[in-house]
User: What shape does this take?
Amino acid sequence: MSPLPRTIDFASVLASTVHDMKNSLCMLIQSAELIQQEGELLSEPAKDELARLSYEANRLNSNLLQLLSLYRLERNQLPVQIDEYFLADVVEEVLLKNQYFAQQRQIEICVEHSDNLRWFFDYDLIINLLNDALSNAMRYCQQRLLLSVSVNAANLCIEVHDDGQGFPEFMLQHEQLDMNNPDLANNHTGLGIFFAKLIASAHSNKGSRGSVTLSNGGRYGGGVFRLVLP
Assistant: This one.
C-alpha cells in the first residue's frame, strides 16, 4: 500500500469537491423545475416552500460557480471567451432563472432594453454575474425591481434597481474588497461582489476595463447594482 502524502493541495481538493457538489445541486435544481411545472397541483404553502428551495439552490449553485471560477483564475485556467451577443437573450435567460421565485413573492420585475442591442462579452460569466445581482435584489426588495440595459458614452450599462432599504454603508465604503479578511461580523463574505468586480475587470476594450459599482437611491429608492462594459 502506498503511503498517504504528507501534504495535499487543499485548493485542488476543494475545487474537486465543489465540482461534485455542483453536479448534485444541478440535479436538485432540475427536479425542482420539474415540480414547478406541476405547480397548480400544490397548495400555496407548498408553492412558497418550493420557491424558497429553488431560490436557495440557485443561489448556492451561483456561489459554487464563483468559487470554481476564482480557483481557475488563480491557476490561470479561466479563459474569458468574448463574442457578440444580443442583450435581449441575456435578459430573457436571467428572468427565466428567477421567474418562479418572483411570482411566488409577487415581485414585479420591470425591464428596459432594446431588442436589437448587441455587445461583446463572455456570455456564461456575465449571465452568472447578473443572475447573482438580480437574486440578491429579490432577497432584499419589497415589491419592485428594475433591470435596465442601455448604452452610455460608448459603454454598455446594465443596472438592477430595487425598492428595498439599500446597501448597508459598510458595503458602499469598501471600494477594494479583501477576500482574505471577510466581514463576518456583518455576515458578509464579499464573494459575490468580489466576483462581479473581477469578471467586469476581465472585459477590456481600447484600454478601458469593465466595472461594477453599488449605490443607493436609484429609480425605486433602494439599492442600485451597476455593471459597465466597454
